Amino acid sequence: MKLSVRASRLVLMLVLAVLLVTLAAACVPEKEAGDRVGLVVTILPQAEFAEKIGGEKVKVTVMVPPGASPHTYEPKPAQMTALAEAKMYAKVGSGVEFELVWMDKLMATNKEMVVVDCSKGVELQAMVAEDEHAEDEEEEYHGGRDPHIWMSPVNAQIMVRNICAGLIAVDPENRRYYEQNRDAYLKQLAEIDREMRDGLTEIKNRRFMVYHPAFGYFAMEYGLTMLPIEREGKEPTAAGLASLIEQAKAHDIRVIFAEPQFDPKSAEVIADAIGGRVVLIDPLARD
Ligand code: ZN
Questions:
Q1: Going by DSSP bridges, is the β-strand pair 277-280/255-258 parallel, antiparallel, or unpaired?
Q2: How much distance in Å is there from the Cα of 128 to the middle of ligand 1?
Q3: In this structure, what CATH number is given to the domain that contains residue 250?
Q4: How far is the CA of 69 from the centre of ligand 1 (A)?
Q5: Domain boundary at 196, 212, 240, which?
Q6: How far is the CA of 63 from the centre of ligand 1 (A)?
Q7: How far apart are CA 148 and CA 96, in angstroms?
Q8: Same domain for 171 and 263?
């Protein structure tokens, strides 16, 4: 009888102990999440950069979600909450409309937040204009500058360095951790750059047609010529389409690239006219 009481007490203590450990374990991730450095970025490729460098030490919030366009997106209340708690904002800095329209308001929401400009050290290029006539009008779009800097793996390396420097500034305790992650990731990016360079050297036809002109920096890096379908953020006119079809035929283009953020209709019209096909390619993919 005595033994059985002692045994049941033991069982009770054991149950309590297990319960306590379970509770403690359940609490840990939450506490850790709170300790993470809140880091806000504008677009998904930056989220990839930030997470590769920050690992488990950061909590990354992306302003422009998958499928949305940074040329038109407006932030949601939940994102403003994340922003209010963030230590750092890594902006693209190259004239992305979302930032031109929202950056001042976002910064006013959280005045303590450190703002890092990812484009620092990147040579900004003019938006590709197809012909003389288009050039004046293109000036209006993006202020004449091409904001899609992240599309070049070489620029991506500069952006990664900028994000890392920002993280070290807001969280110097974890400097070594960030630097090690940064260096490992820079190696990967350099590898991608080498693969692109090697893979594209032998290509004879160096022109490609794409709906939204997001590949200017990529084209420049590898000696390619981008022929954009969209003009100043608008669908081409009937005359514009006819001219694009002519160009595609003249340059023996058989694939028309289009981005999932945009209506592929005009890309399909051109592809049909040249007996080619449309291939979707995402300039805002994380990877
Ligand atoms: Zn774009």
A1: parallel
A2: 12
A3: 3.40.50.1980
A4: 7
A5: 196
A6: 15
A7: 8
A8: no
Quote the ligand 1 centre to 37 CA distance (angstroms): 29
**Pairing, β 114-117 against β 225-228:** unpaired
Whole-number Å distance, alpha carbon 148 to ligand 1 midpoint, is 6
Distances (CA, A) of 10 to 7, 14, 23: 5, 6, 20
The domain in which residue 276 lies consists of 200-280
Residue 156 has pLDDT above 50, yes or no: yes
- How many whole angstroms separate alpha carbon 225 and alpha carbon 49? 27
In angstroms, what is the span from residue 160 Cα to ligand 1's centroid? 20
Total number of domains constituting the chain: 2
> What are the pLDDT digits (tens) for 226-261?
999 998 889 999 999 999 999 999 999 999 999 999
Residue 274: pLDDT band (50, 70, 90) is: very high
Q: How far is the CA of 203 from the centre of ligand 1 (A)?
A: 26
User: Taking residues 169-173, what's their average pLDDT?
Assistant: 98
